Amino acid sequence: MSAEPRINERIRVPEVRLVGPNGEQVGIVPIGDALKLAQEADLDLVEVAATARPPVCKLMDYGKFKYESAMKAREARRNQAHTVIKEIKLRPKIDPHDYETKKGHVVRFLKAGDKVKVTIMFRGREQSRPELGFRLLQRLAEDVTELGFVESQPKQDGRNMIMVIGPHKKKSEAKAEKAAARVRRETGEPRDELIEGSDDEQRADEQS
Q1: Nearest-CA neighbor of 47 among 39, 35, 67?
Q2: Which of 3.30.310.50, 3.10.20.80, 3.30.2310.20, 3.40.640.10 is the CATH number of 8-61?
Q3: Which of 99, 106, 132, 182 is the most buried (most CB within 10 A)?
């Protein structure tokens, strides 16, 4: 079945409840009178509530209505931000340098508004020490608590232990902030803290 509403002569009922172009209630009128009013106003008669008794029809420029609706839907799709789940894999006995590197990835993903699936991979005898993985996941969650929260608590999945961290910031907000920062870079707009700070603070920033 077509999702398109019936318009003009395709509306085959004896009478309709008519709504004017500005939303005013005209009342129940014969279909012939409604079509005549539409023609005189150079508008279309559009059935907006087919299941009502009688059906509700509105006078409008249907072509313009369809165009504006398509533009709104296109804009909504363009602005829609899909949640992405990134994955980071760690070993229970990861060395400090590798941990900091992995944590940096998690921080970057959360700042971008993405969820992070953190997987601890156990090998050999490590499987008998699940507490090592649990403590590591707890440590990571605490290290990034300003950017994200534990959405899915650590749980064992075969030889792995998995935890999901969700961002405090929505994807759309992260994209907007990134776009604003890019504009500031391109336009050379000074940072707020430099504008508000003292001369000594500005010189200190320039020397650092």
Answers
A1: 35
A2: 3.10.20.80
A3: 106
